[in-house]
Amino acid sequence: VGSYAASKRAVHAISDTLRQELSPFNIKVVNVAPGAIKSEISNNAYQASGLERFKSPSSLYHRIYDFIYNRCYMSQKNYTETEDFASYTVGQLLKKDPRPYVF
Q: What is the tens place of the pLDDT at every residue in 28-73?
């Protein structure tokens, strides 16, 4: 989770920097932060990471397995439909002066 959070922050930082550096050239930089979008990301991440192994009583993570599992699938509760998000985002990005962040 730590590396995921750090990489998200890095994207925000580079977007802010690029926005400032490119503004004299009338180039807009927009950071799109979609939040919970209906997708297979949780299933794919769970399967690819091998989190199932943490269920084993011999795992150091066994006691917090339920927390890890629930955190993995959190984005798939109260999600936005993919088509709704795409339509909203395109509308925001096509504005003459888009906001620096689209949530």
A: 999 999 888 888 888 887 788 888 889 999 999 999 999 988 888 8
**CB-count exposure of residue 6 (10 Å: 0-12, 13-18, 19+):** exposed
Give the span between the Cα atoms of 94 and 3, in whole angstroms.
32
Looking at this protein, which amino acid is placed at residue 62?
H
Instruction: Look up the pTM and report it.
Output: 0.68
d(CA 13, CA 69): 29
Token pair of 64, please? 């917090």
Whether the CB-CB separation of 42 and 72 falls below 8 Å is answered with yes
